[in-house]
Amino acid sequence: MPKPKNPVFRENIYTFPNFLTFSRLVSAPVIGYLVLKSNYILAAPVFIYACITDLLDGFIARKYGLQSIVGSVLDPMADKILMITLTGSLAWIGNLPVWIATIILGRDFLLGLSAIYYRYVSLPPPKTMKRYWDFSIPSAEVHPTTISKYNTALQMGLIGVSVLKPLVLQSLTVESQALALQAISGLEYTVAATTILSGLSYVFSKTAVKILSPEEIEERRLKQLTFTAKGKTEKTGIDNGDTKK
Q: How crowded is the C-beta side of 19, counted as CA atoms within 13 Å?
């Protein structure tokens, strides 16, 4: 008789942290559209929501044991798509210098190419397009470098300032406007420097991208099964208690 094939392990990707990350991903084109239409009053709260989800998704995943490979990939992807969309939109309307937009977009383009490469080389065979885009099949995980984390925070700060700048400047005096613009210029140079350094950190870091071994994938499968079984046991206990009542 033919030997049965080992089933492909698929992660549970339908978790609340992943939902928050996905909502941030969806919010990117919405904010970009509002910025292009100069509707900063609506763009600002949606951008703040995106920043809050960036803080909450990782915290909730770590606190409740909901980390996943797809989350480790989707989270930085959502950040990058948000950053790329707003950088392009703000540069288009003149709220962000083209030279810094070029640095940000150039680095993210190169990181995107490397992500495509690592996904392909780490994907267990058979390497098909369907399996390539099925992120419930874990193959590699991303660990942001320290400088990259600081850079993401600084970029978000610069984007937030650029979104709010038209609203804030009109309420300031001429002298205050000059000081504010100087401060923004300093932030732009800081973001440019950290963006270049963070890009180089991914090139020279040995731990930024980790290709999972079959043993590590099996370990994650068993961990997910244990977590699922524990949840079912707790639910059964609650149901039995309700029945006795």
A: 4
